[in-house]
Amino acid sequence: MTTLDTAQEARPGRTTNPLSVLATPWTVVVAVPLIISILDPERFEAIVGFAAGAFLSTLPYIAFAVILIAWLKAAGAEASIGRAFEGRENRAIVLAALFGGLAPFCSCEVIPFIAGLLAVGAPLSAIMAFWLASPLIDPPTLLITAAALGWPYAIGKAVAAVGIGLAGGYAVKALTAGGLFKDVARGAIKRGCGCGPSPFDGRPVWRFWAEGQRIDNFSAELRANAAFLAQWLALAYVLEALLVTYVPASLIAGLVGGEGLGPIVISALVGMPAYLNSYVAPALLAGLTEQGMSPGAAMAFLVAGAVSSIPAMAAVWSLVRAPVFATYIALGVTGAIVSGIVFQMVV
């Protein structure tokens, strides 16, 4: 699931009130250096230089991610994802877990997509595989994680997304066969949300430049997502600069350092309620790992935080009953802990 708007309810770029810019990350990005210049002028240059340097080093990743997601949206790639749920259940689970990180959905579009799958009788096991995998990774998140933490973390999170999706899908299949989840949907299923046609319909047009409307969509997505990523990454690196400057390394190492199971479990449990935008978390974790956070704890935090994202949980809660929602959370936390343990062992 592409979650370029996971930290806001509206699509990126839909700002109509000029004053609404005050409610964006840019307010913090501007305010923090001003406050530092007043309260701690000696560290002003170091903090601003750190944040600016980190942001500039990420620009190539941002550019590639923005172009890629604009192309997927203009082509209508969502339709290809929908077909992954057709056919045999085992095949649907595998494809749903694999495609979960590729679907170019915003937070409002994933709900009618899943609603459409429920309406046509797609297996809950495959839907759960998609639900678990989709918040964890997408093309922009992969590149931004690589830029902030390195490719081992980016690849590790992508593998974790597929692994958790597969494990969750087959776990739900087993539970369903055992008699659970007989009443899945929460009320009547609708396939629309006011965002336009359901992404479950239609066929992708990969050579989108042959159609004027798709070219317009590409341009709009390019501008909106570039602005959206820029503001969140600017905030991320400002916060990382503050973290590295003011938080003692000994404190971080004491809480989530070392190679034991404890730091991994703590990070997973803290990561769930302390959800951070997928574009903010890697930069902050980069600072934490420099100060002693173990690789396994960092991975557990990344995974747990993504599963607990507001759009991801809202999509599950709005469509299915409490037992399915509780299963989603339990699988997410367990998957985060297991991912942290495996990543710690591999690294």
Automatic annotation (TrEMBL):
Organism: Oceaniradius stylonematis
Family according to the record: Belongs to the UPF0718 family.
Membrane topology: Multi-pass membrane protein
Keyword Ligase tagged: no
Transmembrane segments: 20-39, 46-72, 92-108, 153-172, 232-258, 264-285, 297-319, 325-346
Protein's name according to its UniProt entry: Permease
Pfam families in the record: ArsP_1 (PF03773)
UniProt main location, coarse: membrane
Cross-referenced PANTHER family: UPF0718 PROTEIN YCGR (PTHR34184)
Protein's UniProt keywords contain Transmembrane: yes
Upper taxonomic lineage: Bacteria, Pseudomonadati, Pseudomonadota, Alphaproteobacteria, Hyphomicrobiales
Cellular component aspect of the GO annotation: plasma membrane
Key words of the record: Cell membrane, Membrane, Transmembrane, Transmembrane helix
UniProt subcellular location: Cell membrane
